[in-house]
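QA checklist item 7 of 12: single-chain prediction sanity check.
[x] sequence parsed
[x] length recorded as 475
[x] structure emitted
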Amino acid sequence: MIEDKIPNVGYSEKELFSSLEKLKCKDIDWKNGKTFGAVYYPGYKYAKVISKAYNLFMHENAFDPQLFKSLLAMENTLVKQVSQLFSNKNFIYGNLTSGGTESIFLALLSAREWSHKYRKIENPEVVLSSTAHPAFLKAMRFLKIKPVVIQANNQLSIDLDSFENAINENTILLVGSAPAYPYGMIDPIDELSKMALKHKLLLHVDACIGGFLLSYLKKLGYQIPDFDFSLEGVSSISVDLHKYAYAPKGSSIIYYRSEELRKNQFSVFSNWEGGIYASTSFMGTKPGGIVASSWAALNHIGEDGYLQLTKKTMDATNLIKDYIENHDDLSLIGNPQMSLIAFKSDTMNIYQLADKLNDIGWYIGRLQNPAGIHLVISQIHADGAAQEFINDIEEIITSIKKRPIKNTLENAGDKITAKILNLMSFNKLKHTLVKAASKDKQSKNKKRIIYNVKQGLELEDSDELFRSIMDGFYK
């Protein structure tokens, strides 16, 4: 057993990998499609080659473009290759980043710097929908930008009138999503483009999760609305490669319409004692393995491969979507336009269903306002996992409906538990839930109770509770 200190004498390869295998046994069975999100796997044939490319450049660092010409060439190539999915006519400018959050951070940084330089804005504001990814709020917290969050309308889309009414002399950027993560729906980017042009503002499109797949859905004949640089008002786009391009984790691209906008994301300190320092992104180190494996993914899978993977993804998506649409107890939330699906129930506690799915080994997302289950579907689910998931849902729902009294008592017990917890002092409540969440093994999932408890808390206390829960995991 590996101890909590560096060993005096290192373990052998056999001992190390024995420990790694034991640790891995505790993980979810993602290779059999048990995760709806977090993991994107192209299959062993592709993954073997992509991993080999990673290992070949594992020790190199792409932070200095003059150091490893191979990595510079690969980054420039992959940025140009992917750019053709978003702009057929004009050259666009981009860089590889460590993920969607960094890409979004850089887009906001560039907008802030550009607006300060050319519009003399000292107190920048950004207008975005409540369905936009929290990465924007995270980045604005660091960048001292005021978020102006517009509640989604009754159709769970952007309220364009409220969006436009929120624009003022401090607004530097509008944000749209393609698609918005919660419901898989593409924001009206064409209308946001017109709005940005009308008010002479920048417009960022968050296509982190969907941009790559949406581009291939177009190639397959799906009716996908324009969301890219074909719209004149779009000034930047973020797109992840570690999702539907199936590159390893830590790979995204931020694109700009102009060279000037991209230069605003660069950090340069030309008078530092350690020499002239310059970085294209927020991170300093850029792992060579990520550059090489991202390049390898694009060029090994290729157009035909991505079309096949996209078709498999949508086959699995449509299988689950059709099941939900034809089920008496389930219904879709919104109108998903790709492989992100949200669904709810008006006849049962949807969080109870989610917990029971967790109990039998499924990893799924939970939505709130309205309460729902969230799925990110990929090609891995087309090889039997989608049908297995449907079968498990059907079995759980049948079991719940067969025992209505037990189910009623269970839901009543959950509410009583939540009320008792809410009667505690906040510090005692926090201690109790942190201890419960950080247990190595729980017999039954009861994550649903946390949503009941959360409803009785002020936002500040709710945020502190979940910070403490997160803190409790890292001990």
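[x] summary fact logged: The chain has two domains: 54-298, 312-473.
[ ] second reviewer sign-off
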